[in-house]
Amino acid sequence: MILDTLSNIDRYASLHPLFPKAIEFIRKSDLGSLAAGIHPIIDKQLFVIVEEAQGRGRDEAKLECHRKYIDIQLVLEGVDEMGWKPLADCHQPVSDYSVERDIRFFNDAADAWISTPANSFCIFFPQDAHAPLVSTGKIRKLIFKIAVTA
Q: From 14, 49, 82, 143, which residue has the greatest number of CB atoms within 10 Å?
């Protein structure tokens, strides 16, 4: 898991072959005008989900994990206090892993809560369980889905 500000995002370009394309999209797009929904960048290898939601409480947020995609969750408006726990320490699954949706939820409690304000981002890898959209207000964010195998 990585937490940083948008001004430092170029530092992470070498972590994955598709990260430079995601960073280029961030640099060249008018992020504030993107409509809510899914925006393909490179077919199913790299896409972004624009999400606008009212935050929820920690008790309502379920830890989730993904196997096929790395998430870069960039907060544009509001503060997203995301929960985090190593996937290896999650032992209370809600259901089986959904191959179709690339997601599995857990009832485990987060080990840490990461306050992620506007113009900051978290990168979650497949070994990171995370619980997003925790806030007392509205959140607008971009979730870049980056295929683990490029």
A: 82
